[in-house]
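pasting for ref
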Amino acid sequence: MSDEFGSDFFTITDEEGNEFELEHLDTVEINGEIYMAFLPADIDEDDDDFGVVILKVEEDEDGDEDILACINDEDELNEIYDLFMQRLSDSEQD
């Protein structure tokens, strides 16, 4: 479900086989690492867990394919989150 001027939606599957549909907000490359920001497609702004999902692009174990992985380092996650929030804020002002 994507068109030239609309949003990009991704369906991802976690390690337990659960599928989630996410709306892609932005992608950024920092120091050779690629990070992607998403919002859940079924977003409920009243939900306490409402928020941006940030995933890191990594190669799978075989090096054949890119996968989206959670960021386990809290400092790294906070740095990337702040960057995405600044970029979103800047784009809203334009």
